[in-house]
Specification:
Blueprint: E1 3-10, E2 16-24, E3 28-30, H1 31-48, E4 54-55, E5 64-67, E6 70-73, H2 81-93, E7 97-101, E8 104-105, E9 112-114, E10 120-125
Parallel strand pairs: 1-10
Antiparallel strand pairs: 1-2, 3-9, 4-6, 5-6, 7-8, 7-10
Length: about 130
Amino acid sequence: MTTTVLIRDEAATGQTVNEFSLEFLTETIDVRELIRSRVYQEVKDHNAKQNQSVFKGLIQPTDTERTMNGYRLKKPRQIDWKQQFEMAIEAFEKNQILILINNRQANSLHQQLEIGPETVVSFIRLTPLVGG
């Protein structure tokens, strides 16, 4: 039996930017598995569509520019999920991404999470302030 959770990308203001469901085989996962599953699924979905010029994902792929709806690739191409996963882990560890599970912040990649059909996971990308 699989467990489905709701994944949301939110702006720092709390506004939902993107929302989708993600399935897991167990009811207990850690934060690393949560990130891996999310990144794997979004890259798999992107790569399945031929000639897709915009990637809608958590992490900006190399050689792209940010747009309102994602990241524009200079030319349509396949994205490497492992590279995206490594960049997502690094961003989490550098506090560039916050993950909230039912409005409680995840603190560690090894943190165990109990998930169920009512679970809502929010990913919030933080933008560093410029100036100083």
